[in-house]
Design brief:
The structure holds two protein chains of two kinds.
Chain A lengths: L11 H24 L4 H5 L13 H47 L5 H11 L8 H10 L6 H8 L3 H14 L2 H9 L4 H30 L2 H6 L8 H14 L5 H24 L1 H13 L1
Helix pairs in contact in A: 1-12, 3-6, 3-7, 3-9, 3-12, 7-9, 8-9, 9-13, 11-12
Chain B lengths: L18 H40 L2 E4 L3 E4 L3 H6 L3 H34 L3 H11 L6 H12 L6 H6 L14 H26 L4 H8 L4 H12 L1 H16 L3 H7 L12 H11 L3 H25 L8
Antiparallel strand pairs in B: 1-2
Helix pairs in contact in B: 1-13, 3-7, 3-10, 4-7, 5-11, 10-13, 12-13
The chains are: A mainly alpha, B mainly alpha.
Chain lengths: 288, 315
């Protein structure tokens, strides 16, 4: 006998509640989208702050944003991209290798070193900023791109994720079969294990690239040359200047609003297009 | 040849190999293991152990105008733990954690449970939208909320004006606490929701079927089955949010320029360390604060995990 299929569940009150929450989470985006269209009179004229003014001038504001101060904003975006890619890719390569090594080889000192990595999960990254700054200043590394890229390579959580994933998704039997067929250890890793680990690799890459892109405290401490700033530090500086002299900086405010909008676009696109990947990987850390 | 084994994965694989090959195999395991782990190990030593050791070393000295730098052992730490700025900052982040972390987790859990129960096109859309703030740098999030709170740009004046009420000023001394709670909740609740949602989706639906047969209602299923089963994920986000909140820096630092006078340079311990090190060039004391703060977080979280480890945590 067939059982009746459960009716699709609608739950109208819950959906309405969810609707309110969505509005809450979207309000800041909406504000930025609306207000980045305004010119100075529209912004300060006392009109509705959650709706468009009479003049909608996205292109004009964009042009201003990218030409202000010899196009420093474009430079900040490029810097952020460089830091995110270099830090993200570097951290991922290290994490994949280490996670695989911890999962698949019983070497001397393995338990102790893995315990160290787990302990490092609990050392907040920001607690390392001032110590790292002082060490780097001994070597003259502060105020260079390396001051931002090198510390981003340290990603103990990535190692932990890769360890869990390699342990569960790469069976020892397959590796042994590859070895028996005469493949060396490196080739076994690259051609047999790596393809099996790919979903977690994408997740770690995304998470570490996002962490580098979002980083603020580290570059704020390390960099003094504004041509090396990532976009987070740059906008923070602009905001400080604009708030310090309220009246004289009306044009800077519209640059900041447009700048905030432009700076979130790359990540929002990345998250939407790659959502299949990060969602699978996020569950790895949560479930075990 | 290795035989198929039903042993646990942690059993040494070299066991089945013939004795004369064993030494060679073991050596290869050692060498290859360290080759794979080594590069990360170098980064770990150079960028985690070395800075911490150096900061610890620096924190044991004091620089004076007269007499130069001298070894003072724990004087800087004694100074920190009697320094009203450090203590009030620490008290603030503790209070802030006690309010904001439960709030974020409750909001995230409620959203995850709703999204797990109801499936429609709209809930799929909601899931993405609620997660969206995670993609936003915390600095930009703080800048955006700064605009919304502001008297000149924000909608609060208009909104409350409709009812003839005075708008709340979330950048003032009384309300900045809640202003920051809101920014942090907006930023992170979606991320926690995704982690919890992924854990909920991993539960075998047969359990719900069985519970329904036994007469359990929707609430009972949520409270008695779903929440206990995702306890490890809840613990994970609790730890993450605790580590993050005790280190609070980005949001108050950004809102500082808008909330002149409300947020001082010693608002949180991390801001205080930053001020000591970079504004006052007092590196020894800044190191001591950084080290003390990092140490407290580490010990606190470790103790917490130790106490809850029976529940088979994520570690």
């Amino acid at each position: 006998m067939m059982r009746a299929r459960p009716r699709p569940q609608r739950h109208l009150p819950l959906q309405v509640l969810l609707g309110f929450l969505v509005v809450y989470f979207l309000v800041p985006f909406w504000w930025v989208i609306v207000n980045s269209s305004k010119d100075a009179p529209g912004l300060f004229g006392g009109g509705n702050t959650l709706w468009f003014a009479d003049t909608i001038d996205y292109l004009g504001n964009l042009q201003q944003l990218f030409t202000y101060d010899n196009g420093i904003y474009g430079r900040w975006i490029l810097n952020s991209t460089l830091y995110a890619l270099a830090g993200g890719i570097g951290a991922t390569v290290l994490a994949v290798m280490a996670g695989y090594g911890f999962a698949k080889y019983r070497f001397a000192g393995r338990r102790f070193s893995f315990a160290l990595v787990l302990g490092a999960l609990m050392v907040p990254a920001t607690a390392l900023v001032i110590p790292t700054f002082m060490m780097f200043s001994e070597f003259g590394l502060t105020n260079t791109i390396w001051a931002v890229i090198l510390p981003s390579l340290l990603n103990p959580f990535g190692v932990y994720l890769m360890h869990v994933y390699a342990r569960d998704a790469v069976p020892d039997e397959i590796l042994d079969a590859a070895r028996a067929d005469g493949a060396g250890e490196i080739r076994t890793f690259l051609q047999v294990a790596f393809p099996l680990m790919r979903p977690a690799v994408v997740t770690v890459l995304l998470l570490s690239a996002v962490a580098s892109w979002n980083n603020y405290f580290l570059p704020l401490a390390m960099l003094s040359d504004n041509r090396l700033f990532p976009v987070t530090v740059g906008l923070g500086v602009w905001q400080g200047i604009a708030s310090a002299n309220n009246a004289g900086s009306t044009s800077l405010w519209s640059l900041i609003i447009m700048g905030a909008l432009v700076s979130v676009v790359p990540l929002v696109i990345a998250f939407f297009t790659l959502q299949r990947h990060w969602r699978g990987g996020l569950s790895v850390g949560g479930l075990r | 040849m290795t035989l198929l084994t039903t042993d646990t994965k942690s059993a040494p694989r070299a066991r089945d190999k013939t004795p004369d090959r064993r030494g060679k195999v073991r050596l290869r395991e050692h060498v290859m293991g360290w080759l794979f782990v080594g590069p990360f190990g170098i980064v770990f030593l150079a960028l985690l152990i070395a800075p911490l050791a150096y900061a610890l070393y620096l924190s044991l000295f004091q620089k004076k105008l007269i007499g130069g730098t001298s070894f003072v052992l724990f004087d800087n730490y004694v100074k920190a733990f009697t320094d009203p700025s450090f203590l009030s900052g620490s008290w603030f982040v503790i209070r802030f954690s006690l309010v904001s972390i439960p709030l974020q987790i409750i909001v995230a859990l409620a959203m995850a449970l709703i999204l797990d129960t109801v499936t429609s096109l709209f809930t799929r859309f909601s899931r993405l939208m609620i997660f969206l703030p995670y993609a936003i740098p915390t600095v930009i999030g703080a800048v955006m909320w700064g605009f919304l709170y502001s008297k000149s740009f924000g909608p609060l004046t208009d909104l409350f004006g409709l009812f003839g009420a005075t708008p709340p000023d979330f950048l003032s001394g009384n309300l900045i606490f809640y202003g920051l709670v809101n920014v942090v909740t907006w930023q992170w609740a979606g991320y926690y929701m995704i982690i919890l949602y992924a854990a909920l989706q991993g539960i075998d639906p047969a359990l719900y079927e069985a519970a329904r047969m036994d007469g359990a209602g929707r609430w009972q299923i949520a409270l008695r089955i779903k929440i206990p089963l995702i306890a490890p994920a809840l613990l994970l986000i609790l730890v993450f949010s605790l580590i993050g909140t005790l280190q609070f820096f980005n949001e108050p630092q950004i809102l500082r320029s808008l909330a002149a006078g409300t947020i001082g340079p010693d608002f949180t311990p991390n801001m205080y360390a930053y001020q000591q090190a970079f504004a006052l060039a007092n590196f020894n004391y800044g190191s001591a604060i950084s080290f003390a703060l990092g140490g407290i977080v580490f010990v606190g979280v470790y103790a917490f995990l130790f106490l809850t480890r029976k529940r088979r945590t994520f570690l």
